[in-house]
Amino acid sequence: MPQPNEGKTTSATISRDISAADLEVAMSAQRDPGLLRQLVELSRSAFGFYASHFPYTINYPWVSERIGELPEGSHVLDIGAGVSPVPLFLARRGIVVDCVDNSKHIRALPATANWNEWGFFDYSALHPNLSSHHCDITEFAPSAKFDAIYSIASLAHMPRRIREKTLSFCREWLHAKGLLLLAIDVIPSTDFIWNRSEGVEVEPPIQHGTIDDVANQLERLGFRIDECRVMRSVYKSRTDLLFIVCGGEGSGYTTRQLN
Predict the structure, then answer these.
(1) Is the dihedral angle over the CA atoms 103, 106, 108, 111 positive or is it negative?
(2) Alpha carbon distances (Å) from 82 to 25, 142, 225
């Protein structure tokens, strides 16, 4: 159902909007093309564009499908929200979302032609179920525990010590049976976590860590890893993609799938 603050955004032409040709490629690979189409329409309506970075045609639907199945009133955390349709998609399903991002780029509507998916945006301007926090995730103080936490392409941009601290907080902030979803960029044809942020190296790959380093920490924290899958050779992507789904209790690291 349309919300009071929706549709009052922008008519700007955003250069970062995904092309028709790339969107056609993405649609042909979708298990549920309707979900991606909905996310594209929602993003263009709210911000004037859907990010042209092709992996977002994969990881936005991946998170939206899983978190969107939670019951109305569920409380969710988005780590490194940026400018994304996912929080709004969830809010319109009755889910309450806290969005945390410490970006130096402040985005305020109406959008301008140089917008992209990077930046801090105050989602409360779009829906009453959304709130935004402009701070480092390690400085965030939630008011209650979450039913789910997700992060889309943000953990790789953190130094390893911050990433590990963040995952420790995730264990603390989640309900015992809460859901954790992580979409993480990986250096192509390796198991090293992507180590660049806005073109700058965060730290050397050996220091930044590997897929196993992330999985092993999650197990030590007591998460049950239900899925740990790597997608290789992604169309028009500089990175491979890692998808991790964690339950709240117990151990059980599944065999990694290489696609």
Answers:
(1) negative
(2) 24, 19, 26
Spatial CA neighbour of 184 closest among 146, 127, 227: 227
In 3D space, the residue among 17, 69, 63 whose CA is nearest the CA of residue 43 turns out to be 17
CB 30 within 8 A of CB 128: no
d(CA 86, CA 181): 13
Is-above-0.85 flag for pTM? Answer: yes
Tell me the CB-side half-sphere exposure of residue 94, using CA atoms within 13 A: 6
Q: In this predicted model, what pLDDT tens digit does every residue of 119-138 receive, in sequence order?
A: 999 999 999 999 999 999 99
Which two three-digit tokens encode residue 13? 């032409």
Which token pair is 249?
């209790």
Q: Element (H or E) spanning 230, and its range?
A: strand 224-231
Sign of the Cα torsion 25, 80, 15, 197 reads: negative
**Whole-angstrom distance, CA of residue 153 vs CA of residue 118:** 11
Residue 199, pLDDT score: 83
Collapse the DSSP code of 223 into the 3-class scheme (helix H, G, I; strand E, B; otherwise coil) and give the result.
coil
State whether the Cα torsion 259-241-132-42 is positive or negative: negative
Fold of 20-258: Rossmann fold (3.40.50)
